[in-house]
């Protein structure tokens, strides 16, 4: 039943956020997703800490899954289309798919290893990672709207020295 609820929340989030994905920039949607995810992780932690009703904790974790669909779910693939030229897209898609699955595996392994000793405090770690990612993207990600691939690469080279 838990898996069905999780899939349903993700599906509902996908349906809800789809109209916004084309209306607002990828940067805004991605940042909104990470910020929302961090808020709901921290809210889940607080509800656990304060001994609130378990349904409230489940609500916050469900809201995390729902908000994931605003940005981190679909946006990485949209960003690849906006950022890379046609010749580079396949390589970028392969590389970012590898990174995505590596991150998923790392989270699963780390969670199993630290969830026992840390209990639900582990949600602070993952909430902090989401918040850090929000700030990182807000500072360093360039809005691709109306820009060519070459213009984007030039802006990234100016903004982030490692690309020089």
UniProtKB/TrEMBL annotation:
Cellular component terms per the entry's GO annotation: membrane
Keywords: Membrane, Sugar transport, Transmembrane, Transmembrane helix, Transport
Major facilitator superfamily (MFS) profile domain residues: 1-145
GO molecular-function terms, A-Z: hexose transmembrane transporter activity
Domain of life: Eukaryota
The UniProt record lists the keyword Ion transport: no
Membrane topology category: Multi-pass membrane protein
Gene3D superfamilies the record matches: MFS general substrate transporter like domains
InterPro entries: GLUT, MFS_dom, MFS_sugar_transport-like, MFS_trans_sf
Annotated localization: Membrane
Transmembrane residue ranges: 6-22, 29-49, 55-73, 94-114, 120-144
One Pfam assignment: Sugar_tr
Main localization (coarse): membrane
Name of this chain's protein: Facilitated glucose transporter protein 1 (Trinotate prediction)
Organism: Henneguya salminicola
């Amino acid at each position: 039943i838990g898996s069905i609820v999780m899939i349903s929340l993700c599906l509902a989030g996908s349906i809800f956020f789809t109209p916004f994905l084309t209306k607002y920039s990828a940067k805004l949607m991605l940042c909104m997703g990470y910020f929302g995810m961090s808020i709901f992780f921290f809210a889940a932690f607080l509800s656990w800490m304060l001994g609130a009703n378990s349904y409230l904790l489940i609500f916050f974790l469900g809201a995390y899954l729902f908000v994931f669909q605003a940005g981190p779910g679909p946006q990485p693939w949209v960003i690849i289309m906006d950022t890379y030229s046609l010749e580079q897209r396949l390589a970028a898609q392969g590389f970012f798919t590898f990174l995505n699955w590596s991150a998923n595996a790392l989270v699963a392994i780390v969670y199993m290893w630290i969830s026992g000793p840390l209990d639900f405090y582990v949600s602070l770690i993952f909430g902090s990672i989401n918040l850090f990612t929000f700030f990182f993207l807000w500072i360093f990600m360039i809005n691709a709207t109306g820009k060519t691939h070459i213009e984007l690469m030039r802006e990234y080279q100016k903004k982030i020295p490692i690309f020089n």
